[in-house]
Design a protein that fits this description.
mainly beta; 2 helices; 6 strands; globular; single chain; OB fold (Dihydrolipoamide Acetyltransferase, E2P); five-stranded mixed β-barrel
Length: about 150
């Protein structure tokens, strides 16, 4: 089984190209922080090359930019080629089958987050704040078709 699932930040804007057969291909790199600190007390990161094809490539190039958090589902691919100076180059990359938004949504007018993403729960503690965000408040749970 060859399945890779990961989440990281884009290190650069995705680069969208088309093949000679007019198939969209997008390449980008994500940085994934390691879970543990190194000997000097800092977190290190792994940088992974990602490749997406067709509609997935177009989706990523349209909606994701440098610094965005992205979730990737795909497969690991290895390939090699001969460099122009004669040595063999080995490449390992992730071929993206699915891309997902991760992290907070940014306001179009500023770099500050607009708030926490919805969790599926409705809060009635501060109804004016909830209403300002466009969520409806529920006074009681007697009308709900499920238990909370």
């Amino acid at each position: 089984m060859n399945k890779w699932i990961g989440m990281g930040r884009l290190t650069r804007d995705p680069e969208l190209k088309t093949t000679t057969n007019q198939i969209a291909v997008c390449s980008f790199t994500i940085a994934i922080n390691r879970r543990f600190k190194n000997a000097s007390g800092e977190y290190e990161a792994d940088f992974l090359n990602i490749l997406a094809w067709r509609q997935t490539a177009e989706f990523i190039s349209k909606y994701f930019h440098k610094g965005n958090m992205i979730g990737i589902v795909g497969t690991v691919q290895t390939r090699n080629y001969d460099h122009k100076d004669g040595h063999k180059v080995y490449v390992t990359e992730i071929v993206c089958d699915e891309a997902h938004f991760c992290g907070e949504k940014k306001d179009t007018n500023s770099a500050a987050p607009t708030g926490n993403p919805p969790t599926g729960k409705v809060s009635t503690e501060f109804p004016e704040a909830v209403a300002a965000d466009g969520f409806l408040t529920i006074d009681d749970d007697t009308d709900l078709p499920f238990d909370l």
